[in-house]
Structures are given as structure tokens and as C-alpha cells.
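Exercise: predict the fold of this chain.
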Amino acid sequence: MKKKLMGKRLMAAGLSVGLVAGMLCGCGAKSTGGNEQAKCEEVSEALKFDSVSDVKFPLAEKVELTCFVYATTTGGGTYQDNYVTDWIEEKTNVHLNFVYDVDGDDAKTKLNLIMTDPDTIPDLFLATNWTKSELQSYGQQGLLIPLDDYLKDCPNWNRLNEESPLRKGDLVMSDGKIYTYGDDNECFHTHFQNRMYIYKPWVEKLNDGKIPQTTDEMYEFLKKVKTEDPNGNGKADEIPMTGMIGGWATDPTVWMVNSFVECNNPLSNTNPTVAAGLVVNDGKIEYSVMKDEYKEAFRFMSKLYKEGLLDNQTFTQDNNQFQATLSNEDHLVAMYSAGGPQNDEFWKNQDGEWQDWEVMEPVEGPGGVRFAARNADNYFGSCVGSVSVNCKYPEIAVALMDFMASEEASLVQANGPEGIGWDYTTEGSSLSGGTPTYKTYDIPDDFDWVGAGFKDYTGKKVTYVSDAMIRCSTSKFRGDMQVEDPSHDGEYFLQAAAEKYSKFDPGEDTLVPNLVFEGQDAQTISELTLTIGDYVNQATVQFITGDMDVDKDWETYISKLESMGVDNYVSLYQKYYDKYMENIEK
């Protein structure tokens, strides 16, 4: 298998960038530039493997792999002298030499220069922040090797794909090949991040403790808040529902629209949404924001706004104003939208006013629709784990990535040394409510590493940045983490909220995945996503606030989208979605 794959790699590289095929002695060709001479170092018999499954760690002889890492948030220069890097070497006998450890504006520039000179390309790319189109382009140029045949022999890769059914499809490019190992960091509660919170004391006071279950019941409850002075200060200052644009799922429109039609088109969200507004219906891509049901959602939200039941500051206030409204001495708000409770004590796992709020389930609309807006996981991440054509040990490189995706290695990458950053345990309760398998700790800055028998990492990094981890953090694995005090644990609270919302899951088959667009199509999609998306969001606010009339201006809205190229936009998504489905069915 190795010689066959090597031949394909070298042929592709020679055709596209002038790399010269070396002798098939178990090493990749390394270009010397203009003289087109190939370099090839003989590989020790102890390091020759026919498949990834033959690689056993620790290796009989030490191997060095040169690496690039886009070290987001670190400033660069933290990976070479890092506990995780040392631990990987101890366990595998593979020395990761981070010849490129860069961050910020310099990282993209540096990476572009590296890819223009085959002599400078390292063996392994741990994280690059390439788009899918960029990754595929480098693969098709022969600068990166396809990993498909290698990955078939990887136990953790296969296990992760079983536990995360959408994972493999997110990593297969539109040419049918896989060029990156990918990540697995499923966060169950962000699947259903568009949540609504309702103030329980007012539900008791105004609604006999009954939380609204339909849009009509919610409307009646909001009217009571507006007219019956539940805060008892003698002023008509209550705000039935509020939100803001620019926070984590603080836009209330998404939550309300899903009582009329499935749609995940947030006006703004710090946690981005793939293919906003697009859904899959029996294999066909549809743009929900053009449906008549969306029009009815506009009508309902406009009614709330006109009657003062939806805060008229929702689309203009910033976070400071939003927080001030929620924390007013005279309690003002009955309902607000957000990914998590807007209260400092909640995030500190302390008692606080957040305990007076309850996560409100989606409500049923007049047509019987009752969805929770659903988000897809991102397994592509920052484009984690690609192997260059220069790599002399591709089987070892892929086996190393599969090792990093083990449970133990995932815990070490995220938390540092066992016994200091984490431990195995079966005591207490887990995040998912069952028996835990591990617990994590915060390592204090003044920890005595030497005294504990470790290398001195005082003031140094002892974990990898999440963007550069190759891990197995599936929903199940994450759910197995110990929670010390479920009644005061924010993660546990959000997990329970998502479980409540999962009853209204529209289904994974309705989600548009993060597709790979090629060539000019990629540019077209990028441009239309901005222009069409901006117009839809602008019109949404105008329909709700009354600047556009739902009845008079709906056809104008549709015509405007058509003139902007929405049919082409949807058809391009359909074209690449069909490719996606063909590839994952192979």
C-alpha cells in the first residue's frame, strides 16, 4: 500500500509544483528547487511500516517530525517547551519539532510563504486555519497527501466516526478525499444554543405557575406582564421580552421563528452558524427566510413589537444596556434570549438571581410547528492534522494523530498531567447525569512542578490551545466528566437545558453541513453569503419594527432577493450538497 500511495503523491506533486519523484525507498520526495534534484534519506528497517496498524508506540527508534501550528491566542512559541509535547515524545518516541509556531497576523502570511516553497514545507500541520477550499487546493496540488487509505487502519478514527455520524462527512472534501484528521469537540448544549429564559416568580404571580406552551399562551402572559405591574413599583416599566444583537444567542428572533418554520438565521451570534437560514428538506436545499411561514413569523413578532411586548431596544442596545436592564433594582424583565443565564454568579457557580430564571421550552405556533433551532458540530475546526508530501514517515504521522485522539491523550492535551490537571474517577455524578469516568482540575499558577517530580513548567504552557488539539471529545465523552455540585455547575445547567430542547430537534438530516466550494463557486458563495445575508437581516428588523409592512412589502422583499441572485445561491449549495452526499455514501 505504501509504495502505491507514495507513487501517487510524488506524481501529483511533480505535475503541480515541480517536485521530483525520489527513489521509492520509503521516503517522500523533497524538492531542491530549481535544480529539480530529489533528496531521499534511507529509512531504518525499524521504522518501515506497511500500514498505520503496524505502527506500535513507543517506536523502536526516535523519529522527528517537523511541524507547523497556528498557535491561536498564545502569541506563538509555546509548543516546543510544553508538557503535552514532552508527554507525546515520552509515550511515542516521536519528537515534534515546531519549526513554525506562529500566531496573529503573521501566521497567515508565514503559511502562504511556506506553501510557495516546497523546501520549507514541514512534515505535519497541526493547525492552519485553512478553509476547506484552501485545504483541498493544496491537496490537489500534491503538497498534502490524501489520508483516506491511512485512516482506514486507525482505531480511534473509526471509533469517532461511529460515535459522531456527521464527523467523516465534514472532513471529506468535494473531490472525495480526506486531507486532514480533524477534531471532535462536540458540545451538546451548543447544539441548541438559541434559548429563552423566563422569570419564575412572575410566572407564579401572573400565570398560576404555568409556563406558556404556545405562541398564544406566551402572548397572553406577556400582556399580563405589560399591564399588571408584577414588580409592584406602581410604574408601567416592565419589559415583557428583551434581547440584543451581538451576544451569544441573545437575538430572540431565532427562537420565535422556530414556532413557525425551521430556521437558524441569527441576526448576530458570537458562536457562528453554518449556512444560516438554509435547511434540507428531503434532500433539497431550501431558504427558509423566503417561505410563507417565515412571513407569518414576521407578522407575529411585529405584533409583539408594536404592542410593546418585545423590547423596542432589542435591535439597538449594546451589552452594557442589556445587562443594566436585566440587573435593575426594580426587576423589569419577564423573558430574555441568550445562550446562558445573564448573571455573574451563574458563571462563578454560586447562588444568585439566575436561580429565579428557568429555561423556557420552544412554544408551539398556530400551525403546530415547534422546533428548537439546531446547530451542527464543526469537526473540521481550524483544519487540524494534515501531512505534507515531504513527510518521510506518513504511517507514523497518521498513527500519531490517531494516538492524540485517544481518551488519555485528549485529557492530557486539554488539562495537562494526570494527577495534577485531571484524574480518572467513578465517584459522584457526571455531566450527563450518570457515573463519571474522569474529573478535571485547575492547575494554580504557582504550582511547584519540580517538587511534584515534573520538569519545571512554572510560567510555561502545559496544555495545547483547543484549536490545535486532536481529541475525542464526543458528546458521550464530554458527558462522562465529573460534576462536583450539579446544583451550582454552569455546564450541568446548560447540558440540562439542551436536553430539554432536544425534544424539539428538527433532525440532523435537515442541517446543511459545512460544504466545500471550489474555484469561482467559492468566491460566489462568499460574496452572496454577505450580500444576501445582510439584506435578510436588515429586512427582518424592518419587518418587525414596522419600517416594512408584512403584507405590503413581502413580495418586494422576495423580488429583491431574486434580483440579488438567491436562486444561484441556493443552487450552488444544492450542487455541493449533492457532492457531499455522494461522497459520504461511498
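Check your answer against the key: The two ends are 20 Å apart (CA to CA).
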